[in-house]
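Quick one, tokens below. Sequence please?
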């Protein structure tokens, strides 16, 4: 345990890894043309990974109110590969990870109790979902394209451990899944170039890394140059895609990372063509996402658990909602609420039991980030993206946050099917299909790993009496789909 909290390497090594700054800014490896970055911190090392087109995800607590925002050309935090689907997560000490695809550059962030948020892309499509009898609706902006999907052999996995470090990976065409509660009706959507965000907690060690003193790596897209960062115990990293400029953040315990973008700025996240980010929320729930046929779903949370997200090439994230929540997403002409995705990605937003997240966007607006003692929401925007969101009543206040024990995660495999979940104290899990190989892990300093297969297919599901609806704006094209042997899960 001591090794997990105090890895063998010195703090100096954690803050100033042996490799040179040049190596940090232009790491020896690349994803597509990207230049990943590595980071390290005493106790937390979030990592990002990329598949071909991964898509990140965001999550929120039960009564939390996450918000995402976007500016005209801004690019939100998450990243995606060609079709991969990263996920974001938050927890008191949880550490979500994001990943990216070919040129995508996921971002990871961490903070003692920080709570990053991911948001939309240019034509991204928000999604809303609802709980037991809720009936979420999805909507799209001018060119948004929401979708729901299902796959045949996805394989979710969940994991947890005090200081465990799950890892996820992605395959080439994974497809996350959307699910709904008893009567809930989740929807997934995608935008053109939107990018969700990923975040992490204080001493967690998300993603795909190694043990106590692992050091996650972030990567960037074609021309982007990711950045690496470090904090006392948390080291979030941001990366960017093709000309994007990722942002990384970290703070010891009270730091508040934020990702933002200006007109042409490119915040942290990136997206691939068909990526599909996911969002989740739950009071203390720990959602999990999983992967496709050969994919290996991911892991998730514990007291200091470290959820991970992953994506595959065409993976598709999932969304879920709590018991009685009824989030709604909306969009303006070019706005793209809630989740965001790559070209054809299908992001999703969700809400917890009584949470009412809201997102907003403006034509040339620039998202905002916020922070509080223990919450650190982040906003990001994509070129024409319109952040997402959801909200319930008129007086709701969107905020991004995380709960102490909630750790939602989304992941996807090659055609994997991640799942997200939420519930007051529920711990949803998604599971696998025919050839899937889910993994679970746990242990004080365990390091679970997830992987994805190549042709898995995401799944969408709904409850007994659910009635999901999709809607679109001017040119939007929402879609719903289902798979044949998919294995949906509700939580």
């Amino acid at each position: 345990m001591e090794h997990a909290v105090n890895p063998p390497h010195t703090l100096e090594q954690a803050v100033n890894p042996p490799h040179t700054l040049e190596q940090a800014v232009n790491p020896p490896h690349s994803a597509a043309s990207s230049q990943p970055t590595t980071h390290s911190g005493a106790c937390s090392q979030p990592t990002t990974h990329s598949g071909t087109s991964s898509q990140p995800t965001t999550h929120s607590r039960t009564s939390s109110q996450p918000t995402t925002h976007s500016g005209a050309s801004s690019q939100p935090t998450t990243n995606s590969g060609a079709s991969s689907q990263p996920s974001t997560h938050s927890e008191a000490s949880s550490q979500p990870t994001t990943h990216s695809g070919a040129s995508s550059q996921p971002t990871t962030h961490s903070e003692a109790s920080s709570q990053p948020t991911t948001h939309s892309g240019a034509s991204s499509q928000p999604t809303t979902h609802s709980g037991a009898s809720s009936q979420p609706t999805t909507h799209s902006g001018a060119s948004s394209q929401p979708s729901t999907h299902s796959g045949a052999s996805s394989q979710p996995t969940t994991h947890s451990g005090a200081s465990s470090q799950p890892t996820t990976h992605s395959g080439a065409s994974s497809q996350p899944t959307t699910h709904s509660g008893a009567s809930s009706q989740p929807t997934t959507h995608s935008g053109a170039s939107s990018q969700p965000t990923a975040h992490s907690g204080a001493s967690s060690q998300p993603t795909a890394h190694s043990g106590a003193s692992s050091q996650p790596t972030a990567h960037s897209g074609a021309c982007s140059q990711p950045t690496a960062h470090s904090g006392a115990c948390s080291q979030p990293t941001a990366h960017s895609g093709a000309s994007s400029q990722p942002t990384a953040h970290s703070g010891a315990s009270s730091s508040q990372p934020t990702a933002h973008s200006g007109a042409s700025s490119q915040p942290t996240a990136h997206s691939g063509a068909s990526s599909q980010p996911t969002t989740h929320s739950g009071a203390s729930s720990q959602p999990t996402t999983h992967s496709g046929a050969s994919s290996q779903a991911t892991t998730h949370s514990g007291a200091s658990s470290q959820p991970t997200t992953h994506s595959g090439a065409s993976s598709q994230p999932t969304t879920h909602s709590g018991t009685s929540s009824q989030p709604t997403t909306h969009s303006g002409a070019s706005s793209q609420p809630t989740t965001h995705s790559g070209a054809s990605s299908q992001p999703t937003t969700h809400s917890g039991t009584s949470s009412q997240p809201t997102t907003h966007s403006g034509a040339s607006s620039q998202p905002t980030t916020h922070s509080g003692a223990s919450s650190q929401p982040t906003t990001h925007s994509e070129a024409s993206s319109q952040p997402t969101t959801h909200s319930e009543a008129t007086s709701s206040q969107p905020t991004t946050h995380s709960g102490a024990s909630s750790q939602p995660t989304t992941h996807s495999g090659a055609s994997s099917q991640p799942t997200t979940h939420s519930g007051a104290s529920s711990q949803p899990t998604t599971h696998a299909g025919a050839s899937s190989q889910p993994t679970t892990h746990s242990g004080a300093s365990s390091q679970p790993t997830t992987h994805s297969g190549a042709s898995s297919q995401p799944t969408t599901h709904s409850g007994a009496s659910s009635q999901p609806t999709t809607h679109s704006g001017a040119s939007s094209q929402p879609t719903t789909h289902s798979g044949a042997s998919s294995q949906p899960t509700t939580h």
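The CA atoms of residues 62 and 411 lie 21 Å apart. The longest strand covers residues 57-61.
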